[in-house]
Amino acid sequence: MIFLSTLLLSVLITIALTPVFSTLALRFQLVDIPNERKVHQHPIPRIGGIAMALGAFVPILFWNYEVNFVRAYLTGALVLVVFGLIDDFRELSPRVKFTGQVAAALIAVLYGGVQIRWLGSLLPDGVLLPAWLAVPLTVVAIVGVTNAINLADGLDGLAGGICLLIFAGIGYLAYLGDNAVIGFISLALVGVIYGFLRFNTHPASIFMGDSGSQFLGYSAITLSLALTQQNSVVSPTLPLLLLGFPVLDTLTVMCTRIVQGRSPFSADKNHFHHNLLKLGFLHPESVLIIYVFQTVLVIAAVLCRFYSDWFLLAGYMMFCGAILFGFSRAARTGNSMKRFHFFDVKIAGRLRMLRREGTVIKSSFKIFEFGIPLLLIITCLLATKVPFYVSLAGCGFAGLIVLARIFRKEILGGMVRIALYLLIPFAVYLSDARMMEWQSDELVRLYNATFGIFAVFIIIISKFSRRKKGFHSTPMDFLIIILAVVVPNLPVEKVMEYKVGLMAAKIIMLYFSYEVLMAELRGKYNRLALSTVASLLVLAAG
Predict the structure, then answer these.
(1) Which long-range contacts (CB under 8 A, 24 or more apart) does 89-98 make?
(2) Distances (CA, A) of 117 to 131, 141, 326
(3) pLDDT for 122-159, tens place per residue?
(4) Mutual orientation of helices 500-521 and 476-486 as an angle, nearest 10°?
(5) How far apart are CA 115 and CA 160, in angstroms?
């Protein structure tokens, strides 16, 4: 339950705090102003990193503060968040930013014990790097990756999505290796990013800023090194795969600037995501393509974790060569992607027409409107051994929703949302024990598959909706699909032991489903309130 509560707490804190900081940023003009290097057209708040840091720090402090590595990690992360926040308020010089990054890296290296000492089969058997070499090498690696993620934050949802995939990979590898601390922190960061991407996918309403991107970059490299260097049987070259795409992007851009006689830290629009835009891909398409590249690397890291270090290094170099060859050839020939008439006119045009007609949204939303509440009620019916405090809270929230419906209809939506966010985790968690008693694997598969089916409905409704606010179809749909498809199909002997991954997938699916549902209802919450009361009472009676 500790892992599940960590994930949910990080998601909820981030979702709750992000709008608050967004409002404060607009009030005090702490916004990102558009310029020739930016792809957005209007000033956008850029202090989302504070909400992300708090969303991660709170559950980590609550559960794991006594571990030395955690203390070092949190201290270093705090240093970077503070420096990043100051940089978001007023531009810091590269030297000052670099000082903060080195300080954070030294904390992780000297106090947290994160050092690159073991290189596996890349060195003779049993040979470790001496401390005088390992310490500066690790500092360079931490500072480099911190900047790589910071520089990858160039399109809406790009850095967040990349890091979500990275932390999912690190968390799963830690889980397989029984490294609870790293798995725990990774899970908190996955929750933070999922919560933040609700506001950061294209078109973004808030940016994470330097405080957020440096925090994520520092976390990614620190956790990956700790996982592979401290009593690990997996390959020490795995961080190269997990972090490979943003690292390749940064090295390519910096080398290009040096060759051109410019400072490697000078700003330009030559990153991979900028090049994809130049090739003719749209903003969401460019983000999605990079998500796919990063997914391939993360899956390769998981599947090849016991392979030879030379094999992994060669595979990564081949990947880098293919990427660089593709971009250089396109730049040399001046080619851009041809927008296919069949797709852009026939298919996309047909989709736009269907959106205007509203046929798809009407039929699919009817199923969605009744199916999601029914799925939640069934989940509550399956719940067993419901604690007394949960039953009491269920009855209390049911009463509050009824009172809001009668006396204060303007707060009905907020009351329903709060009740759902508290109800869903307990319903899923408590129903999981009942499913263990089922004799029919077919029923369990059917029940679990229902969540995947409704994930598809989320995408369909978001794509064809004509509303201006709320959830829309974005590259985050790809991350939702990955969650819905991959998690239930992870190795059974590990997932069934704690069922954390599957429960998390169900909970996040229900969260997103109800957000889409409430956005489409446009304030007409009577039936939703009734079904929520029914779910609360069913759970309370369990």
Answers:
(1) 89/30, 94/265, 97/210, 98/143
(2) 8, 13, 35
(3) 888 778 889 899 999 999 999 999 999 988 877 878 88
(4) 140
(5) 26
